[in-house]
């Protein structure tokens, strides 16, 4: 794993050719060193789901969360969905160090102007007010797979949905179709119920407004 073994003379190692570089080696450590980090979605609109909100003496209201897409900088005018609250970011910190910008993957706290700690909560999503700000919705279409459920699930079933940091009850307004869980091919239209092992396309209706995004636009929202 760390050094080539004398007991494996038959093993010639591995090699990888990329557009930017060429790598080879024999050990696991060399393979890990040769890995290229994934590109971060810096060019997409800012999305930062709030994990918590704190009130810090001498500073003010400090929301905390991880940047999923885009860039957060001090001075940015941000909008919080689903409440459509707009304010300015005064400062951004990570591990008690001030940042000039926060990029996807950074867990940060940021101080906002003239906003009470009671106006923000876990599950809200922060975005740039000038670049496709996040919006609220209470209706959307989702694909679900029933992994383990003791009975049948029909229209009107109301589970709790965990989406990014939000935790909200959603009612199954309509089960539109039953589909193959691997290929997505339609198997039955408007089924009366679904059960364990089934995959389906449904129209949920959340009990309160929330912020969701298309899967291809933002994987975690």
3D architecture notes:
There is one protein chain. The chain is mainly β. It has two domains: 82 residues, Elongation Factor Tu (Ef-tu), domain 3; 74 residues, Beta Barrel (Elongation Factor Tu (Ef-tu), domain 3), CATH 2.40.30.10. Keywords: Cytoplasm, Elongation factor, GTP-binding, Nucleotide-binding, Phosphoprotein, Protein biosynthesis. This protein promotes the GTP-dependent binding of aminoacyl-tRNA to the A-site of ribosomes during protein biosynthesis.
Task: List its salient traits.
6-stranded antiparallel barrel, 221 residues, 6-stranded antiparallel beta sheet, Elongation Factor Tu (Ef-tu), domain 3, GTP-binding, 2 domains, 3% helix, mainly beta
Chart the SSEs and their pairings.
Layout: E1 14-17, E2 22-25, H1 28-34, E3 48-56, E4 60-66, E5 77-81, E6 85-94, E7 97-98, E8 107-112, E9 125-128, E10 137-139, E11 142-145, E12 160-163, E13 166-179, E14 186-189, E15 199-210
Antiparallel strand pairs: 1-2, 3-4, 3-9, 4-8, 5-6, 5-9, 6-7, 6-8, 10-15, 11-15, 12-13, 13-14, 13-15
Domain GTP-eEF1A C-terminal: 139-216
Family: Belongs to the TRAFAC class translation factor GTPase superfamily. Classic translation factor GTPase family. EF-Tu/EF-1A subfamily.
Keywords: Cytoplasm, Elongation factor, GTP-binding, Nucleotide-binding, Phosphoprotein, Protein biosynthesis
């Amino acid at each position: 794993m760390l050094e080539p073994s004398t007991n494996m003379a038959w093993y010639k190692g591995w090699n990888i050719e990329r557009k930017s570089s060429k790598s080879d080696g024999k050990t696991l450590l060399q393979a890990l060193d040769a890995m290229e980090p994934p590109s971060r979605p810096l060019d997409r609109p800012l999305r930062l789901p709030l994990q918590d909100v704190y009130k810090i003496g001498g500073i003010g209201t400090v929301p905390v969360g991880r940047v999923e897409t885009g860039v957060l900088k001090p001075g940015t005018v941000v909008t919080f969905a689903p409440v459509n609250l707009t304010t300015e970011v005064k400062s951004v910190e990570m591990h008690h160090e001030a940042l000039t910008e926060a990029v996807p993957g950074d867990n940060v706290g940021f101080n906002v102007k003239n906003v009470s700690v009671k106006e923000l909560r876990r599950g809200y999503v922060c975005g740039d007010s000038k670049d496709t700000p996040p919006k609220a919705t209470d209706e959307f279409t989702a694909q679900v797979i029933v992994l383990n459920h003791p009975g049948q699930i029909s229209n009107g079933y109301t589970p709790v949905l965990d989406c990014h940091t939000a935790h909200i009850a959603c009612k199954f307004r309509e089960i539109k179709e039953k589909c193959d869980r691997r290929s997505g091919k339609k198997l039955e239209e408007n089924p009366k119920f679904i059960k364990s092992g089934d995959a389906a396309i449904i129209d949920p209706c959340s009990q309160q407004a929330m912020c969701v995004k298309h899967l291809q636009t933002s994987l975690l929202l």
